[in-house]
Design a protein that fits this description.
Length: 244
Amino acid sequence: MRRVIVSVHDVTPRHFERLREIDALLARHGLAGRYAALIVPNFWHEWPLADHPDFLEWLRGAIAGGVEPILHGYFHRDESEHRSAWARLRGRTMTAGEGEFLGLDREAARARIVAGRRLLAEHLGVEVDAFVAPAWLYGQATQEVLEELGFTLAEDHLRVWSPARGGATLARGPVLSYASRTRARVAASWLWSRASTALLDPMPVLRLAIHPHDLDVPLLGRELDRALGALLRGRAPIRYRELA
């Protein structure tokens, strides 16, 4: 049976309204409790989980209902000085300054990952062993820290792997996601969505990533609805941990 993994990124009180809309959309497609929530402990230094009890209550209920919690950075903001021209280029072209873990050294990466995991345990009652870096951008130091800490799962644009198993690949293939910052990115996202739901259909595992701002653009909202229907035809929805 072919499979599909759906993840919701940037799960933070900042996007509470949009997250509830996404949750309702997924429920309409039969995915209630069958997706991953990528949780940011303190989005942009302005939205700490502890300051938003209504959001925490909602998120605890979602997790109790089957939603898979994953640590998604800490601040979701790139404040480091990248050490190479390649890292700077990736940070500029692949995200709007949110590649938080691209340029961190080992000490800083470890401190944020440990603190984030502790906060999720404290406020949500979950012990997470899965991590996805903001914008799917990792520096070498971050990858080493994930292996050191025994995280069972991580992913980037092209694969899902297990740091705890020495980087063993669990699934391959590009993730389907959308970008809404400019008209050009919206158009490219729409085209990529149309093409990928057809061209990638033979792959055993497909990944769909949803961001709160996807619903800010009606065209992308409609395309997301269509893509969900297309991906779920003949595919079983699974959680990341089912790969590991």
